[in-house]
Every structure is written in structure tokens, then in C-alpha cells.
Description:
Order of helices and strands: HEEEEEHHEEEEEEEEEH
Distance between the termini: 110 Å
Strand order of the largest sheet: 1-10-13-12-11-14
Helix content: 40-55%
Amino acid sequence: MAGGGDSRVHRSVTLRLAFAAFLHRLGRFVCVLDWHLLSAMKGKIIKYAVTLIVVALAASAALTLYRLYLASPWTRDGQVRANVVGIAPRISGPVVHVAVHDNQQVKTGDLLFEIDPTDFAAQVDVANGQLLNAEANLKQRDQEVGRQSDLYQRKVSSHQEYQNAQDAYQAGQAQVTSAKANLELAKLNLGYTKLLAPVDGYITNMNTSAGTWVSAGQQLTALVDTNSFWIAAYFKETQLPGIQPGQKARITLMGYRRQPFTGTVRSIGWGIFVQDGSSASGTHMLPSVNPTIDWIRLPQRFPVRIQVEGQTPVPLRIGQTVSVAVMPESQNGHIHSSQSAQP
């Protein structure tokens, strides 16, 4: 047909062939466009699906943690506490010997300080001499009572003289008793020249050296009682229904996350210091707990006393920050049963 002599037929065929080529190219373009659109839609669908799955997992994890938080109360607001014994002399005088240094561990009865005993040893000698004198006077008056009794029975002396002798003897007894008390007090003061550790603990905040003059009742150092460590954990009032005395608690020190230890809930505080001043001075002796977040209707925190059990994996220090998780009753029962099964 293309080789024929009819020009109109030739033009018709040429137009048809051109239109067919155009349709072919348009079809290929549409196919490519559809593939790109489908790919973009698939990418968006996958992104949305992944986002929804992540949100669902996060919501599920948050709900699980919240339920666990209510079932097993947990707080990071806790501190290590212990009893601190103030070491102060009972007498005044110059320190002649310091037997310990700052932060040293001591045992009950260990020597801490020694005050010059010279004056107090002399007081013991004086008191001892006074006692001997009083005993000699008592013996003389006892002899006088014997003589006056014999003379009174033979009607030689009067009844008044006999009574006077008896009164003098009783006064002599009183003098002997007083002299013995003075001697005992002098010996006590001599013993007080040596300050001994009243409990096992750690010496801290010591700034005393030999030659320092100390006064009776003046605190020289502090002794942290190693047998009195406990944990003050502050829980929100919404968590208190899940805490009961006797429950076990998991304690973790800041900086020692891999070395937790256990304790037992001993008691829950019955009050805290009211900071708005509405109770005047009625709560000034109660513990002061500062709110962590300034929100309206913020739950107050109450101190829960937790007793440390056994030997801790690391030494405890007053003021250390701890995290405390109170275990559920079911876990407490499991712990008790496992401990009772041990030989």
C-alpha cells in the first residue's frame, strides 16, 4: 500500500502508523507512572503500618509498666541512713593522746582519745585519804559509844552523854559513806580520761589533736554506728496501699546497679512536715520532704523505713542515693519458702 500511487492512501497509512506509535509510547509511560505510584503508595503504607505497630507496642509497654508500678511500688527517691553517736568527754582537760584518725573503723571498747590523767589521779589520792580519816574517826566514836554505854549502865554518866556519843557515832558513819562516794567519783573521773568507742562504727569529722583543751560535753567527733544502717525510701501516697510492713524490698545503690541487695519494710511514716505553715510549729519535728515536680494536686511523698538485711555487697554511707522496689506478696512468700528450705 505504501508503494502505491495513491497519495491519500499513503498519508492515511502514515497517520495510522504515527498514531499507533504514539499510543504505544503513551502506554509505556502510563505503565511506568502506575508502577511509581504503586511503589510510593506501598512505601507510605509500610511507613504507616510500622508507625502504628511502634505506637501500639509503646502503649502496651507503658500500660504494663504502669500496672507493674502500681503492683510493685518503686522509687528512686531514697537515701541511706544510720545512727550517729556523738563522742564527747565527760570531764575537762587537755588531750594527751589521739588513738584514731578520721574515717577509721573501730570496734566497741577501742581507745579513741586520752585526757591528761594527772589531776584526776591526785583527786583519787585525796579522796582515799579522806576516807581513811573518816574511818579512823568512826572507829574512835565507836569506842566512845562503848565507854559511855558502860558508864551509863553503872550510873556514872548521864543519859544525855550516852546519847551524844551515839549521835557522834552516826555522824561518823555518814562521813565514811560520803568519803566512799567521793572516792568512787574520783575513780570514775580518772576512768573518764580515756574515751572508748561505745559501738562499732566509723570515725568521721574528727578535728582534734593532742594538746587541745576539751570541755565536758563538747563533741570531739562523730561515730557512725555500723549496726544501725537503714534505708529511708520516699514513696508517693498513691503507692502506700501497696506497701505493708514485712514486705521484702530490692535496694540498688547509685553507681552499683549490678550489686543490689534486699531489705525488709519496717514501718511507714505517719506524717511529714507541712510546708505551707498552716499547722504552725506542730509538725516541725516531722521529716521534711520536698516535692519533686511543682504540679497541682501533686501526690505527697512519705518516708518508708527499710531495714537492711545481712552483709551488703558494698559499704554503706550515710546520704547515699538508692532506688527501692517493694516486691509483691507472692514474691515475698517465695523468698520465705526458699530461705526456709536452705539448710
